[in-house]
Amino acid sequence: MAIFTSFGRRRSTPAGEASGRELPEDVRQALPPRFEAVGEALMVAADTRPACAVVGRDVARDGAALGEALDGLRTTFQLVLGMDPDFASVEALSVAWGEATLEFLHGLSCEDPLTGLASLAHLRTRLGELYREADQTGETVAAGHALVVVEMAAVDLRRRAEHQFTRALHLVQVTRMMRAVFAGGETIARLSPDRVAVVVRRLPQLGGSVAMLKDLLDDLDLGSTDLRIWIEGLPAFPESATYLLDELSR
Predict the structure, then answer these.
(1) Which domain holds residue 89?
(2) Which of 172, 154, 11, 1 is nearest to 79 (CA)?
């Protein structure tokens, strides 16, 4: 749905030709919604990038398409300066619009849309729950839980840049084996294009479960892809767990 309803308002002269350093009221009224801050920055010859970034995020949250946002930026520059926007302003608005849009899309689901795995954000939430529960029960997360991580690594580095969809299909096969072994409702999440992790309890049979998973993974036909599997201990504090996930997701 278009939100820039006032683009077509007519104007007499660019505001850049007007006296003073404040936006004339007629120009202010003619500006597209949300773009007043950009117009004000232009009037005082300030750096427009911060204002463009704020506007980019705002219009994205309003549901505006990128083309509409750029039209609004162009209209603002034309009204105030009588010229098209510079590259830095366009870039700041576009990047902010893209970031806000991705945040919205990521918030729609806790699952990776291609593989059905839990997202990294969902894994962070799950670990946060464990640390909060540990504060109440007195059992440390490090003693009670761990991550089992599976990594797909290319044997032939010349073929490392294989098609993304092929790698995703391999990841689906790996995930199927992980779900067969850890079938008790454990959270299985995609850390990166090449890594999957499952949150498990540190039970006596954990080593046997990991060995069984390794045997199942060894039977998969993944072409030039080799697999690594290991148990990753969880730190004592939630802040350290955040750093750990950042490292594993690289």
Answers:
(1) 15-108
(2) 11
Classify 2 as helix, strand or coil. Answer: coil
- Residue 75 phi/psi, 5-degree rounding, is -60, -40
| 236 falls within a domain | yes
What is the model's pLDDT at position 20? 47
Report the domain count for the chain: 2
Distance between CA atoms of residues 5 and 109, nearest Å = 32
The first and second tokens of residue 78, run together, are 């034309």
Model confidence band, residue 18 (pLDDT cutoffs 50, 70, 90): very low
Please answer whether residues 153 and 207 qualify as being in contact, where contact means their C-beta atoms are separated by less than 8 angstroms.
no
The answer to whether the CB of 164 falls within 8 A of the CB of 179 is no
Is residue 7, in this structure, part of any structural domain at all?
A: no
Tell me, yes or no, whether 131 and 72 share the same domain. no
What residue has token string 């576009």?
94
Residue 168, domain CATH: 3.30.70.270
Asked, for residue 20, whether it belongs to a domain, the answer is yes
Min mean pLDDT across 10-24, 200-214, 228-242 is at 10-24
Paired tokens of 245: 């996930």
pTM of the model: 0.55
Identify whether the C-beta of residue 213 lies closer than 8 Å to the C-beta of residue 205.
no
Confirm whether 217 is domain-assigned: yes
Count of residues for the chain? 250
Instruction: Provide the phi-psi class of 10: left if phi over 0, else alpha when psi is between -120 and 50, else beta.
Output: beta
For the residues of 108-142, what is the DSSP string, one character each?
H-SB-TTT-PBPHHHHHHHHHHHHHHHHHH---HH
